[in-house]
Write a structure and sequence with these properties.
It is built from 12 helices and no strands. With 326 residues, the chain is mostly helical. It has a single domain (4-319), classed as Na+/H+ antiporter like fold. 49% of the residues are buried.
């Protein structure tokens, strides 16, 4: 089992890189003009490379159960999260429908990727990372359908189209190749070329998370001042109660009692420990939600997550009877 200190040392670099991104923005070394191109680079090249690197040759993803159940749980837990958050929204003192809808959306959706992936890579084996990517298919589908519908107060207005992207295509292709056993073991004639390609994919994939974390830190720097005011203390307190106390209990109950693979149990423990996601801040602004509420929930739970994430992961290892991690 990981000691609490081991888990903490895995969490701190993630927030540390985000802090560097914030500092770089303040120094104007990472300008806002570069955000769009760097994000396109991350989503369309670096993250697909990381997916290929994690999925190809992954024996855990040749088990049908690890291909079907994880995305169902990913979708289902977003439904549960948004539902629970909606019930608690009146306690925040937020009165307008956009504010309450935004609170439900941000609080109900955990940081399922850019915080979870580096922790998963650090704490667990490659099989767990592969299952995490499959789980996130369902989570992302829920974000672009139910999440957008909730925050907009109406239909999702074609939000599902954004779900079809380069990481999804990379995941489906890598899963297919991995499942049938064609995980880039080339014939002797092409051995040099195949090894070169795999090395390139590995290097590109290793760049995905650090760059994404720097960009998240830069975005946080842009919006820190806008998060102040309003009912911030109550909003953050209720969001923390739901996102960092109640929902982790549900995730851990699933991890302990659900008959599933050890890799999926680890993914559930990680997802349950996460604070609110950062990307929905942008979605809330785009789809008619309340930007200040979104910022308060995301930033507040992320800062508190510095304390709660190691505690939940450590407790989850014991509660879910997980095997020692590598």
């Amino acid at each position: 089992m990981n000691s609490w200190f081991t888990v903490l040392t895995a969490v701190l670099p993630v927030f540390g890189i985000m802090g560097i991104g914030l500092w770089l923005r303040r120094r104007n070394w990472l300008s806002a003009d570069a955000d769009q191109s760097l994000m396109r680079l991350t989503i369309n090249l670096l993250l697909p490379s990381l997916i290929f690197d994690s999925v190809l040759g992954n024996p855990a993803l040749r088990q049908p159960a690890n291909l079907l159940l994880p995305p169902l749980l990913g979708f289902g837990m977003v439904v549960v999260g948004i539902g629970v958050a909606r019930l608690f929204a009146p306690l925040t003192g937020l009165t307008s429908p956009p504010e309450q809808r935004t609170f439900a959306f941000l609080t109900g959706l955990q940081n399922y990727a850019y915080l979870t992936i580096p922790l998963c890579i650090t704490l667990f084996d490659p099989g767990t990372t592969g299952v995490l990517f499959v789980h996130n298919v369902g989570t992302e589908m829920a974000m672009w359908t139910l999440g957008v519908a909730v925050v907009s107060g109406g239909g999702f207005s074609g939000g599902w189209k954004r779900f079809v992207n380069a990481p999804l295509a990379a995941l489906l292709l890598a899963l297919m190749l991995n499942f049938i056993g064609l995980h880039f073991t080339p014939p002797p004639l092409f051995l040099f070329f195949g090894t070169t390609v795999l090395t390139m994919v590995h290097w590109l994939g290793q760049s995905a998370i650090p760059l994404a974390l720097l960009l998240i830190g830069a975005v946080v720097a842009d919006h820190l001042s806008a998060a102040r005011g309003g009912r911030a203390p109550r909003v953050v307190a209720v969001a923390a109660l739901v996102r960092l106390v109640l929902l982790p209990v549900i995730f851990l109950l699933l991890a302990r009692f659900l008959p599933c693979s050890i890799e999926l149990k680890r993914v559930l423990v990680l997802q349950g420990a996460m604070p609110s996601a950062v990307l929905p801040i942008v979605l809330a602004r785009h789809y008619g939600g309340d930007a200040r509420t979104a910022l308060q929930v995301a930033l507040g739970t992320s800062l508190l997550g510095l304390v709660t994430i190691p505690l939940w992961i450590r407790f989850g290892e014991y509660f879910a009877n997980l095997l020692p991690v590598t």
